[in-house]
Design goal:
By secondary structure, the protein is mostly helical. It is built from 3 helices and no strands. It has one domain. This is Cbb3-type cytochrome C oxidase subunit 3.
Length: about 60
């Protein structure tokens, strides 16, 4: 086994890992969690809690 075989196996493992991450990111099980994370910036309750905590720190 020479260096070129090692490079080929490493490339194959990297491609498999990349495809695994893409499959996980676009799977329907993860969609709900990602949608919640993406929309959390628009959640007013969290903004109110943040504003209240900032006021306490400023005291």
């Amino acid at each position: 086994m020479d260096y070129n075989d090692f490079r080929g196996i490493t490339t194959l493992l990297a491609m498999i890992a990349f495809l695994g991450v893409v499959w996980w990111a676009y799977s329907s099980r993860s969609k709900r969690r990602f949608d919640n994370a993406a929309n959390s910036i628009f959640d007013t309750e969290e903004k109110q809690l943040h504003d209240a905590s900032v006021k306490e720190v400023d005291k």
